[in-house]
Amino acid sequence: MDYKSLLQDSIKTGFLDLNIASNKNLRPQFLTNDSKNGKKVLTTIIRELELCEEFWFSAAFVTTGGIATLINSLIELDARNIKGKILASQYLNFTHPEALRRIKQFKNIELRIVTEGDFHSKGYLFKKDNIFDLIIGSSNLTQTALCTNKEWNLKITASNESEIIDLAVKEFKSEFENARIVTEEYISEYELIWNKKKTYELKQFEKEESILGQKIVPNMMQEEALANIEHLRNNNQNKALLISATGTGKTYLSAFDVQRYKPKKFLFLVHRLTIAKEAKKTYQKLLGPNIKMGIYSGDTQDIDADYIFSTIQTISKQNHLDRFSPSHFEYIVIDETHRAAASTYQRIMNHFSPEFLLGMTATPERTDGDDIFKMFDHNIAYEIRLHKALEENMLSPFHYYGVTDLTIDNKEIDDLTDFNLLTAKERVNRIIEHAEKFGCDDGNIRGLVFCSRNDISQELSKEFNQLGYNTIALSGADPEHIRQEAIQRLESDDDSIKLDYIFTVDIFNEGIDIPKVNQIIMLRPTQSAIVFVQQLGRGLRKVKQKDYLTVIDFIGNYNNNYLVPIALYGDTSYNKDTIRKLISSGSNSIPGVSTVNFDRISKEKIFNSIDSANMQLKKDLTKDYNLLKFKLGRIPMMIDFLEHGARDPELYVNYSKSYFNFVKAQESDSTFDLDERQIKLLELFSSEINNAKRIEETLILKELINEEHLDVNHFKGYIKSKYAYNVSDITIDSCICNLNFEFITERKNSSLKPVRDIYNLNIVSKQNNLIIIENDFKTLLDNSTFKTFLLDNINYAISKYDQSFNPNKFVNGFSLYQKYTRKDTFRILNWNQNPLAQNVGGYMVSSDKSNCPIFVNYHKDDDISSTTKYEDGFLDNETFEWMSKSRRTLTSNDVVTIRNYNKGLRLPLFIKKSNDEGTEFYYMGDLTPIDTSFKETRMPDDKGSEVSVVKVDFKLSPPVEDSIYNYITKTL
């Protein structure tokens, strides 16, 4: 079908009847920002830029934030020499001069600006072959318009011969030709006007604040935290732990609670004097001048003050502790509580017995195994992690750029790279090139550079200084006053002393406040997601006139690259598929106007790291198990990991065959006692039934444990009401078969037998319209440990299934783009027994010819046999080219069955990118063969001859989504 026919069908769907089948990408689209559903106008514009041959933007308002969201795409277009024109406006002097300067660095883009009249258009044109895509509506080229604002935009696709494109192109050309060419001279002139406007607006804002009087009140999240603290106190709890991301107002929150509690004597403990002084200012601002406040640290010892702000280093010394009775302070706050396991903190906590103790930290997780939660009786008052804080607009947004580190002398930067390569001039030049290209919000860089070693930090600072930058390198050897002086210089507006960058390793990971930081450069491998977030957090505090933080991460060939998306997206499940999908989603899964961008090679390095990473090392499983145990104050169950966003408990099942087995090994003093059959059943249920791939067996099992019988019609009605699909009688019978473990087999006495027969298992049976529990299984459930762990496994599976279930993506048992093993697939397709993998190969027709699942390893290994090097692949996102098994002709039984699909054969397609992804495949949708495409051809075998094979083209319904399509098809 030619493009005009495809376009006509899509126009009919968009403007006449939504039920008309057509190409989704050609249909008119309504573009909005919808954070709940992970939609941003930005995503569509980035996709259009990736596919276009030329682009034209007309936007009244252009900001540095807007350019920051697109700059990665613009860099790629520049490399491919894709031409573009951008038309901005000086209307209301809103457009940022720095944004114009940022655009001008691209040689492939012509930039002009309308300087007169009320030019207020917003349109984006993309030329592709014989068509244009036009986005027109309300979105300017600003980060808020592209990511968060309530915007309405319409995207239409039209022939380049159409009237609407003719009019749009003529209008753009007319305005563009009459607009002023943007030169550096113009930007300098305009910058004077823009700065005056900005200064005036800031003064007006401060004037209004002064007139109105700024009353400080808790924000919504602080109110919730305060209510929780009060609730704990009302329940006779005298300790609480606040987990709150850096920059979210922990100090103010504590001050609000102190204001309500009204202690006569109060102590605020921190580990640095500068923070103690800042905290005192905050409390004075909120509580007023009537409370006597003082500092107790070093030579300043205001012991008579009612509210004392002290450093741990001073007050932990015994001679200072002896000056205060244990009950002297009614209320104590300990900031940076994750340090509280240290002996100095313990000495203080053992000495004092306040009426109430509040701990505050951004990262309670410790790597040394100490239990911070126990110190606060496991009372978590509130938890505000990074992503929640970004959602609530409590932090400055960030634009993250993952860029490929330099290859020098054909050597990639990796975990073992030596000093000379890490500080080579070529690498320094590349760092500077990217620092300037990505820039910062206002063009006046105030940056932190995190390095892997102090000697590298020192050398890179020296290299930067030789190239005209003003930088300093700091380490743990530098005293506090040197660090503070460097911070003041970094934030200074006096060009004679201002620093551009501070180079460091880890001394700024925590406990330091530099609000004006607007660029962070990471020149080290990510060894910890916690440290990554700590370093990112140095630039996330909100401050007036700071629009966003730029983060530039140089990604080498590091083993732990997979930790980057875990840190950025805040997903700590360590589920490989989840992490891959987050990367593929780009900025859609990041809250607010923040964006995440990787260049092509760095993205591939991260995918490779995910593939090769072992996510179930015992030490990592044990660490996360203990962390959750500390947090809860008890042994965690599988459902707890899910509810607390912790490591995917399925990893514990993979490691130990069941979660019970892992717990039993960890808890040597436990009284858990199961016999061999119960242990085996927990293993079987965990891996074969309750893996959240099909929900029916799990729900049947739960109901039978609770009620001992289940009415089939009632069960069908429940599924229909909750999941909006119908369960067939065949599926019910399949579930009973699976619950009795007849579907799976194990080898015994050199032959494969159903597991049920090997272990003599009787779980459930069906009598008329009732499913009932067997007495043998009921007896096993009398053991409370067995029942507890089985129900936990069941509840975990239900919750996990429900979290990912989307009725709009559910197709007869499978969820689009979820992963399934071959065994999962045959179970869901109601096969009576799991076939041998070598018999399946790439596909297998069921005995009743009702289904034929097709499995494709998209990027095949070079060392496989010639007769399995099938040329399978996407022609586009709704057409798939496929080859039958070798030695097949048009008259082969399986080929004939597939060709006669309309006799009731279902053809679900499952794809994995490569064997590196393991044994699971993405469900891509159901296939419909194109009858005219069946073609018998030849392929080579390992003996130098040729064998017959059949080629077929299939249509996929629905078309594959761009993110998963690009992930599977693209490779280096």
TrEMBL record:
One of its GO terms (cellular component) is cytosol. One of its GO terms (molecular function) is helicase activity. Keywords: ATP-binding, Helicase, Hydrolase, Nucleotide-binding. CDD domains: DEXHc_RE_I_III_res, PLDc_N_DEXD_b2, SF2_C_EcoAI-like. The keyword Hydrolase applies. Residues 427-601 form the Helicase C-terminal domain. InterPro entries: DUF3427, DUF8090, Helicase/UvrB_N, Helicase_ATP-bd, Helicase_C-like, Helicase_Restrict-Modif_Enz, P-loop_NTPase, PLD-like_dom. Residues 231-382 form the Helicase ATP-binding domain. This is DEAD/DEAH box helicase. The lineage of its organism: Bacteria, Pseudomonadati, Bacteroidota, Flavobacteriia, Flavobacteriales.
